[in-house]
Predict the 3D structure of the following.
Amino acid sequence: MFKTLVATLALVGSVSAFAPQPMGARVTTAMFDTYGKYNEKLWDNDAKKDIYAVWDPSAPRSPENFNPFETFDGNSPDASGRYPGEPFYKDPMRGDVSFQQMMDERAEIEERLANPKAGDKPGCPGCRN
């Protein structure tokens, strides 16, 4: 008798999984991910300097808080701080550059490396590594 009751309950429970839901009880399963300030905008050196200016190495890394000049396996992050191969990576819109611009940026990089932000050290919460 007990086996019959258990079998009946299992059958009723499995059938209800395929029954249509009432019209007002829909649940969305869409995933919304956040993107950075320069998503779908020009991701050039000026944009990177803007993001770097507000970057806080002691705060957790997020699309709004990351070092845009930090590289990972030789790759630069997109406008949301994601690297190629990571989920939600979007190839950024890059501007044209000239040799002179690259030399100017190199001088800025050397200056930035010589004077890092307070708290910018390997393993800090705002860093990739």
Remarks:
- The chain is about 30% helix and 0% strand.
- Helices lie at 2-16, 45-54, 99-114.
- Residues 27-32 have pLDDT under 50 and may be disordered.
